[in-house]
Amino acid sequence: MCSISTRCLILACGNTLRGDDGVGPWLAAWAEDRFRATPSVRVLCRQQWTPELAEELASAESVLFIDASAASPAGSVLLSSLQPAGGYPSPATHSFGAAELLALAHELYAARPRAALLLAVGAASFDLREGLSAPLQATLPRACRVIEETVLRLLDGEAPWLPEHRPAH
After folding, report:
1. I want to staple 89 with a disulfide (CB 3.0 to 4.6 A). Which of 67, 93, 94, 156 is the partner?
2. C-beta neighbour count of 57 within 10 angstroms
3. Domain that includes residue 85, residue range
4. How far is residue 74's CA from residue 68's CA, in Å, rounded to a whole number?
5. Span 29-53, average pLDDT
6. pLDDT score recorded for residue 159
7. Residue 45 lies in a domain
8. In 10 A of CB 82, how many CB atoms?
9. Given the DSSP bridges, would you call strands 77-81 and 115-122 parallel, antiparallel or unpaired?
10. Is residue 161 part of a domain?
């Protein structure tokens, strides 16, 4: 079993060459800058989540996953609680999601973060191009506020605030 070494792990995912899929790396860079002076916060960003990240999860008190969502309306911001998946895919696949990583961390290290959350940002396009779409650019300030509020609450030991966050219309 791993000992807790990170109070809050921010784990973002995305590809900056696939349009709005780059929101994860963008928000990770923002979070890295925002929490630079807070050693209890660790920010990691990968193009995809892989089994190797289970060890990072096992040593985290809480985790905030960040990813673009094709299933959500473009520009929406949704913060939700996350439970470990009932199983996880073969390590040879490219389909590791946040819930599968939580399950793998529990299986390999008998560890589970106190709080596991997913921030899903609705994407308009995953086309091969650099840069974020206009709807996604417009929602970045809201997504940053949600990250900041969530991380501060997690660091204070408070339960995260989980209502759906959507841009005002």
Report:
1. 93
2. 28
3. 9-131+141-155
4. 10
5. 96
6. 73
7. yes
8. 18
9. antiparallel
10. no
